[in-house]
TrEMBL record:
Domain of life: Bacteria
Name listed for the protein in its UniProt record: LLM class flavin-dependent oxidoreductase
Domain Luciferase-like: from-to ranges: 10-304
Entry keyword Lipid biosynthesis: no
Phylogenetic placement of the source organism: Bacteria, Pseudomonadati, Pseudomonadota, Gammaproteobacteria, Cellvibrionales
InterPro entries: F420-G6PD/mer (IPR050564), Luciferase-like_dom (IPR011251), Luciferase-like_sf (IPR036661)
Annotated organism of origin: Candidatus Litorirhabdus singularis
Length: 332
């Protein structure tokens, strides 16, 4: 089976309001997008927004990339997924991830410990709960005894992953793998680990949906787009999760410079550690035709669902970026 290539738009709206986010989802549907995908990193709660968007659109698939596995218990997730999937079967894709130290430890005051084990145990518990079975689970990071809910069928679980072990585990136990902020040259290596994980579970690698949120700026002013990327994501690569990932992807020197610049509280040095060449390897910055061609290259490299995320939402750039994958302007 060959999975289809899908176009998707990242939400919420730049204003951060519920009303504007609903309107943007409706616009995406009118433009012919297949999906909209939410983040769940504070502010507007993604798991609350999903049913609102589903109720206000006709056929869009709505995904989350990602719900942090540490901030909600498996019982809360299972009951929430059940409500949404019963009412809108086939239209909701919950994506789980370990998130980052900034979100889990600084924002929420929790410990980001044993991420691979935590993801594995979360998925195991979710599968049990969604099947309507009574829990009797004693793991390293999670326990649950005696919980039961009505079964609900065909709830997909997608998992976010960066480095090899998590990519393999995501492909092994998940229905899809969510990628983010990787240098393009690393994609073939990532896909090799998807294949390893899928094989462990007796699956074909091509049956595992690969989702990627692309940080995009549709503009002729590439310098401004690159500056926007640095402003938004230099801090990401200072966190242990993303810093180690950048080093694994082949940019050890940049990762070290970012660590040292961030530790010295030198934000200019930290941003400068992302040279134009590296920004262009990670972000999609250029005119419409250039960004569309990059999306086709990602699709050819194995990405099934390509999510457009406008990281520089000026009055001119935001609509240009939203329109880049409109059905009347783009096809795979």
């Amino acid at each position: 089976m060959s999975l289809p290539k899908r176009t998707a738009l990242s939400l919420p709206a730049p204003t951060g309001t519920v009303a504007d986010t609903i309107a943007l989802a409706q616009q995406a549907e009118a433009l012919g997008y297949d999906d909209v995908w939410l983040a769940d990193a504070g502010g507007l709660d993604a798991l609350t927004l999903v049913p609102i968007i589903l109720a206000n659109t006709q056929k869009l698939r709505v995904g989350i990339a990602v719900v942090p596995a540490y901030t909600r218990t498996p019982g809360v997730l299972a009951s929430t997924f059940s409500v949404i999937c019963q009412n809108w079967p086939g239209r909701f894709i919950p994506g789980l991830g370990t998130s980052s130290h900034t979100i889990i430890e600084n924002w929420h005051g929790l410990k980001l410990e044993k991420p691979l084990t935590r993801m594995t145990e979360t998925v195991a518990l979710l599968r049990t709960m969604l099947a309507g079975e009574k829990t009797a689970f004693e793991g390293e990071t999670l326990t649950s005894k005696g919980y039961r809910q009505l079964p609900v069928e065909n709830v997909p679980i997608y998992l976010a992953a960066l480095r090899p072990k998590m990519v393999e585990r995501a492909a092994e136990i998940g229905d899809g793998v969510i990628l983010n902020l990787f240098p393009r040259a690393a994609l073939p290596r990532i896909m090799e680990h998807v294949a390893i994980g899928a094989e462990r579970a007796g699956k074909q690698a091509e049956d595992v949906e690969i989702v990627c949120r692309h940080m995009m700026v549709v503009t002729d002013d590439k310098d401004a787009g690159r500056a926007a990327f640095r402003g938004a994501f230099a801090s990401y690569y200072s966190t242990p999760v993303y810093n180690k990932f950048l080093a694994w992807a082949g940019y050890e020197d940049a990762a070290q410079e970012i660590r040292e610049g961030w530790a010295a509280k030198d934000r200019e040095r930290t941003a400068a550690a992302l040279p134009d060449s590296l920004v262009d390897e990670i972000g999609l910055i250029g005119n419409e035709a250039e960004c569309q061609q990059l999306i086709r290259e990602y699709a050819a490299g194995g990405i099934h669902t390509n999510i457009v995320s406008c990281i520089y939402p000026t009055p001119e750039i935001f609509p240009a970026t939203v329109n880049v994958l409109a059905a009347d302007r783009f096809s795979f």
